[in-house]
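Appendix C reproduces, verbatim, an entry submitted by the partner laboratory led by Prof. M.T., so that reviewers can inspect both the input and the predicted structure.
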Amino acid sequence: MKAALQKLRELLTHPILMIVCRGYLAYTFILSGWDKITHISSFLIIVKAYEILPVWMADIFGRFLPYVEIFVGVYFLIGLLTRWAAVINALMMVSFMIATVVNILRGTDLENCGCTDLTSMTEGFGWHTFYRQVWYMIPIVLVFFGRHTYLSLDGILQKKKQTSIEPVADEK
């Protein structure tokens, strides 16, 4: 049993899987953030329609969020501060899930969740939105617990740090 769990851990933290997860998250959040920036008016309307935050705070949140998504996506892409990017991304995703569930239970009729593709009204809003958000949490969690030594700035910096630490000779 212990060997099987060790094999599973090795598989779930494999460097190739980490690259795939980082790439998927980078692609998703860079494009999502860019779509929100290029359609900021539509996105602000959607954020306010959730009625979770006061209008003035929803406006600030709606203007700030796309840039956070892009920055987190870039950090995933280059593999820099990858665990921190995963933490920030997980916090964003949990806040999206809470807002989604609250509005589903309220019976709010949103034509678009504001997640991606703001020009399409076919995306809709409902439990499928929540399930998609849960789906995004899987690679976020994998990246958080994964090894970031392959094709990442984290790996390069870690290697430099290890090679620069030399024992200090005792001076007498």
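Residues 82-106 form the longest helix (25 residues). Additional entries are available on request from the coordinating office.
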